[in-house]
């Protein structure tokens, strides 16, 4: 069969190639445009209510200067970092041990625990938020960051356990056996052999928890009342209220938030999906 | 009996020891609130009669048990919005998951080909996923704004008229759906791309030898090869969309009126806006959970009967 009459997989006519690129360019434009637009607005000083936006006008960093110097942005940034950090540490500690136990041992309660984690995924914020709020209120924790860390663990712990189980499943059981032959307890095997091997998985779930806490809105809105303690997700909403609309500041703040999160994300995303689907399919 | 428990403990102590912290933490943070939520849904609790600490003053609970009244009111009461909001939630969930999956699959298939600039496209297409939700919500609010949004600006210049994207009932609902599709496609795309790359190339070669058309190859090799990945992302997609709070809350606050409320945002506004009606919010929460657990059970059964692992 000659190659001119028969087109193998992966070979295309020039027209098909062009169409492919046109579709992908269009999709990429839709994917990128909103962020690009925020970037453009953020460089427009005084964009508040004018009816037209001149894209190629002289740009400046006035909005950025104002946001960093004259608002509580840095305080909110710090709050978000610390809430996300503690959520991550606490959540990983819990879910790594549980994920390992679920991956390696068949114990009474194994199946129902897996099922519980799945059901916990379904808990809408609406069902837990009121009782959690009342609980925190009773403990005097409303308007503290501790309340947020605990609230976020209700989301991250079951999910990370699920994902880490998938990662542990991918580590050969022979390694555990070798550890046991050398006289390690199961806990020792986990700590000295498995955890170091699962480091990429740990990194990815840590990143997932971090992002989850970083972008959460509902609990942060309901639990935090004072301005100083707000996280970014809540604090930024104060830039645009009924009475004032400081779009330029909000845009600048948004870009400042997106850049670090986006950078780390691009390193983690490939593994994020692998772990997620592995954890999900090997129940 | 005691001996059996003991033997069982000796055999499984490491496993249990390792899951106990999680069980305890989830017990306190999920189990207790869940129990409390169920309990609240049988009471008339609101912000005036729930225990609170105001300074040094301890105010005890003073709400009372009302049995099934909240459920009757929510499900059958004359002013209930439950059914209309549930209907909207279902439309929202199905449209979001359908477009997430189909657009994600389409892009994954395109990206899975030999093509110049593939990694650049991949990074650009994943971008929406990397952006924190409150930033993307804000970006879309800016784009769709009635007076100075770019969409209306462009439409106006083209002489197509301008629209109140977030102020009109139907348009607002379509807008939040579109925004959530924009947010969710990258995850589906990446997951399906991973699935595509795991399908052995020999299958395609064999099919080519047999003279299968591209469409036949897609339908008989690609699609079945993606089944496990698809099952997972659709299950998660439905749960996530059904419970999705941030986008609607940040873009429209459920408005105009209640035009973009789904069950979760509706329950939140009952609990934390106006007079805080904790009991009704809890009732909504329990009903949402019942819907989702029912869905998960049916889904799992369907997967089992078609031979999936779980």
TrEMBL record, chain A:
rRNA processing keyword on record: no
Boundaries of every ABC transmembrane type-1 domain copy: 77-268
Residue spans crossing the bilayer: 20-43, 81-102, 114-136, 148-168, 247-268
SUPFAM superfamilies tied to this protein: MetI-like
Tree of life domain: Bacteria
A Pfam family per the record: BPD_transp_1
Keyword vocabulary terms for this entry: Cell membrane, Membrane, Sugar transport, Transmembrane, Transmembrane helix, Transport
Main subcellular localisation: membrane
Membrane topology according to the record: Multi-pass membrane protein
Function comment: Part of the ABC transporter complex MalEFGK involved in maltose/maltodextrin import. Probably responsible for the translocation of the substrate across the membrane.
The family this protein is said to belong to: Belongs to the binding-protein-dependent transport system permease family. MalFG subfamily.
Protein name: Maltose/maltodextrin transport system permease protein MalG
Source organism (scientific name): Pendulispora brunnea
From TrEMBL, chain B:
Location of this chain's protein in the cell: Cell membrane
Alphabetized InterPro entries for the sequence: MetI-like, MetI-like_sf
Keyword Cell wall biogenesis/degradation found: no
Bilayer-spanning residue ranges: 14-35, 90-111, 123-143, 171-193, 229-251, 278-298
Ranges where the ABC transmembrane type-1 domain occurs: 86-299
UniProt keyword list: Cell membrane, Membrane, Transmembrane, Transmembrane helix, Transport
Coiled coil: none
Membrane topology value: Multi-pass membrane protein
Superkingdom of this protein's organism: Bacteria
UniProt family annotation: Belongs to the binding-protein-dependent transport system permease family.
Protein name, as recorded: Sugar ABC transporter permease
Lineage of producing organism: Bacteria, Pseudomonadati, Myxococcota, Myxococcia, Myxococcales
